[in-house]
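[job 4471] stage=fold_predict status=RUNNING
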Amino acid sequence: MDRLDATIAALLWPLAAWILLSGLDDLFLAATFCYARLRGLLPTLPPSAEIRRSGGRRIAIYVPLWHEEAVIRGMWSTM
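[job 4471] inference complete, writing structure tokens
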């Protein structure tokens, strides 16, 4: 049993490295967003009163579904 434990422990290091490396891109994006947010580099949203005053417009939303005709038909009938 000791050999099996040692083998599994040896395989965990490459797995841990893989998980760390695969998450670095998310860490970079989060750090970039936080930096831009703290420095005030992101555009600000208009106040909600201004959004309501601008009037409503219809927009299209693409919902990728597979064999969901009944769901879409039910959603469309409530609009």
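[job 4471] summary: The chain has a mean pLDDT of 86.
[job 4471] exit 0
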